[in-house]
Amino acid sequence: xxxxxxxxxxxxxxxxxxxxxxxxxxxxxxxxxxxxxxxxxxxxxxxxxxxxxxxxxxxxxxxxxxxxxxxxxxxxxxxxxxxxxxxxxxxxxxxxxxxxxxxxxxxxxxxxxxxxxxxxxxxxxx
Length: 126
Description:
The chain is an alpha/beta fold. The chain has helices spanning about 35-40, 60-65, 85-100, 110-125, and strands at about 20, 25-30, 45-50, 70, 100-105. The chain is globular and about 40 Å long.
């Protein structure tokens, strides 16, 4: 459990959190508070990828930022990701796979964005 100062911190899973590939790739709604980010860190998530620029996770706590990376790959709502978007996501996953870290993707309102990226990865895992 991550602690800041002397107060005990708790963690809760982000809304709709689930492992798509156990211990490797997870999907969820965008984390909305530090207890949800803490949950990701405690469960081995090393990189958070968000697909929308209009909603950002609470990454302002130094104790959190030191344990998890965050990348935005902006995908237009209700539109499929571009080939370049998928290439960026795959590069992030490969980088962290090499570091024996977990990768994670977030989707908001339009699960199609996340599903398309994950579907592509399941066809081409390496």
